[in-house]
Amino acid sequence: xxxxxxxxxxxxxxxxxxxxxxTRIVCQxxxxxxxxxxxxxxxxxxxxxxxxxxANAADLLGIARANIQDTALAWKDMAxxxxxxxxxxxxxxxxxxxxxxTVRPARxxxxxxxxxxxxxGDNAYNGSLWNAFNAVTDYIDHYRLTTQDNxxxxxxxxxxxxxxxxxxAFTEAxxxxx
Length: 178
Known about the structure:
This protein has 178 residues and is mainly alpha-helical. The chain has eight helices and three strands. It has a three-stranded antiparallel β-sheet. The longest helix is centred in the C-terminal third of the chain and has 17 residues.
């Protein structure tokens, strides 16, 4: 299916974005994946002639529609890519790298161990790259920040370092299916 997504951060710092996606957005993981793979995105500022901006956005989205098929194919490829134990460790090490020229920090080792635990616990696509990618997104959404401030946590997941980490995990996954 093809969906049109509209996304606004409501922070006053970002433009509204509209794009086609092959993803039915139901959570932060699917929103980030849709945004990360959207390609051309129509951006609308909250000032000026908003009607005109929306009309032009529709034209731009016609160009971006081809990206929907690419995204669906990437996810299918991820689900069909089997991972050896060594490849899984390497994937997680690329997503959460150790600093160079330092002692192995326990915090990073703990994160990588948690990712492996989440990877092994999900039987839906066990042994696949899709499962490894989802282990990262599960970690970001449910284990990474322990703050009780849900607003701060959600902002980090959607717009902050959580989003950047999720995008790095997606990019690393794409490298493995290429």
